[in-house]
Design goal:
Elements (H helix, E strand, L loop, with lengths): L1 E5 L3 H12 L3 E5 L3 H8 L10 H10 L3 E4 L2 H5 L4 E4 L15 H13 L5 E4 L7 H11 L7 E4 L9 H6 L4 E5 L2 H15 L5 E4 L1 H32 L3 H9 L20 H15 L4 H24 L8 E5 L15 H10 L3 E5 L4 H4 L7 E2 L3 H5 L4 E4 L11 H7 L4 E4 L6 H6 L3 E3 L4 H7 L1
Parallel strand pairs: 1-2, 1-4, 2-3, 4-5, 5-6, 7-8, 9-10, 9-12, 10-11, 12-13, 13-14
Antiparallel strand pairs: 6-7
The structure holds uridine-5'-diphosphate-xylopyranose (UDX).
Uridine-5'-diphosphate-xylopyranose binds next to helix 9.
């Protein structure tokens, strides 16, 4: 199959490289000439494990091409994927479809043969219908059709998620679209990945419903964690105890500082906006958003309590800044409101993140950046584990303690055992670990 990917952001670049790796002929297009030039030089515009090697090997095999020329890039295509950004529109939370529709208009004028136009970007219900309308209005060749094929890629594990998906969702109204997408994903059938065909609007909604449900699991366990702290129970065990029930499942039940990233915050708001426009209440998702926003804002209070009730003049070391490990993405990261609230409370904040510094620095004015976790800890009254990078899981806590001024460790990701931390002379406060806290009091 000959595939064109419009937009070489996170989703476009990962999807394009993986589709080329399946053996398809893939051309990735981006308006940003500087980005395309960087990729030609082997420099990835995003940090994703394994991506650089995957791009390079497929370029070398002649199956993966990058260009700024849309007309040239779509000339021979069987399918054109739209993977441009859909940021939350300022003010109302609606996904901003300006880039999607602009790309479709330009594409419609450039096409010379019937293609399947596939949205990979997360787009509100009805966007596929509008794309089909624009294709017709702009005089795209007869037989062109629109389909929806949402992505379910986690940052940091995107290549594995693309190659070993739980399912592939294809929303299409035309048989031709189903045939072309079945061909494209044929290599995955061999791995028995279920390919599910639905209507176009249904596929669009599946993406939002999936992310809203995962966000719900997280907010649910975060509230249960608060209850655990109050009643002397342990949320890690509660999560395991309920997660072993197959109907519930163990995943996405890690209590923490609240979810962030490029998807959950934006997609939950977009779902609420879609529901509002449709005149349908979504009380659960609405509460999930509220719980998560409040949670992020509350994290600084935990730090304040751990250093004796006042942040003024206290030195706080933040370990990890990105919204999760294995990414440099800072979008909606819990570290941002945390650092801001600590500074507002009069604290001096030092931070270390293994890869996120470049993205984080402009977002965190007033924060001192350290070269490693041990340097961040020098003179600190408290250490706060904000992101569960692997390298923070086995820190030499005695060495940390020796350079600190105080002795508080606040583990917002529950990666340490209280006993190990206390053995190093530090005090421990995790999330939702009430039983042990009571015993230790
Ligand atoms: C998510 C979805 O998983 C993916 O399918 C979708 O297409 C894009 O959005 P991503 O945002 O990359 O992927 O990260 P994910 O691993 O899902 O984590 C999202 C946020 O939830 C992070 O802030 C993470 O720390 C938090 N989280 C996740 C928890 O707090 N607890 C959990 O149990 C799981």
């Amino acid at each position: 199959m000959r595939i064109t990917m419009i937009g070489t952001g996170y989703v476009g670049l990962v999807s394009g490289a993986c589709l080329a790796d399946f053996g398809h002929e893939v051309t990735c297009i981006d308006k940003d000439a500087a980005k395309i030039a960087l990729i030609h030089d082997g420099i990835m515009p995003i940090w994703e494990p394994g991506l650089e090697g995957l791009v390079k090997s497929n370029q070398e095999r002649g199956r993966l091409h990058f260009t700024t020329d849309l007309a040239g890039g779509v000339a021979d295509a069987d399918a054109v994927f739209i993977a441009v950004g859909t940021p939350a529109r300022r003010g109302d939370g609606h996904a901003d479809l300006t880039f999607v529709y602009a790309a479709v208009r330009e594409l419609a004028k450039a096409l010379t043969r019937p293609v399947v136009v596939v949205t990979k970007s997360t787009v509100p219900v009805g966007t596929g219908d509008e794309i089909a309308r624009i294709l017709a209005e702009e005089g795209a060749p007869a037989g062109c059709c629109a389909a929806s094929n949402p992505e379910f890629l986690r940052e940091g594990a995107a290549i594995a998620d693309f190659k070993h998906p739980d399912r592939i969702i294809v929303g299409a109204e035309e048989e031709r679209a189903r045939e072309v997408l079945a061909q494209i994903y044929r290599p995955l059938f061999l791995n028995k990945a279920p390919l599910m065909f639905t209507g176009r609007r249904t596929a669009e909604l599946i993406k939002y419903a999936a992310n809203a449900f995962l966000a719900t699991k997280i907010s649910f366990i975060n509230e249960i964690a608060d209850l655990c702290e109050a009643v002397g129970a342990d949320v890690q065990d509660v999560a395991r105890g309920i997660g072993l029930d197959n109907r519930i499942g163990a995943k996405f039940l890690h209590a923490g500082p609240g979810y962030g990233g490029s998807c959950f915050p934006k997609d939950t708001l977009a779902l609420l906006k879609t529901a509002e426009d449709a005149g349908v209440r979504q009380r659960i998702v609405s509460t999930v958003v509220e719980v998560n926003d409040a949670r992020k804002a509350e994290m600084a209070e935990r730090v304040r309590d751990a250093v004796g009730g006042s942040l003024a003049g206290k030195r706080i070391a933040l370990l990890g800044l990105t919204f999760k490990p294995n990414t440099d993405d800072m979008r909606d990261s819990p570290s941002i409101p945390l650092a801001q609230a600590l500074i507002a409370g009069g604290a001096i904040v030092a931070a270390f993140d293994p890869v996120g510094r470049e993205q984080a620095e402009p977002l965190l004015p007033g924060v001192e950046f350290a070269a490693n976790a041990y340097a961040a800890a020098i003179g600190a009254d408290a250490l706060v584990i904000v992101t569960e990078w692997d390298e923070f899981r086995a820190l030499d806590l005695k060495r940390m303690k020796a350079t600190m001024a105080g002795s508080a460790l606040i583990d917002l990701r529950n990666i340490y055992d209280r006993e190990a931390v206390e053995a190093a002379g530090l005090s421990y406060r995790g999330i939702g670990r009430g039983v042990v806290a009571k015993a230790a009091q």
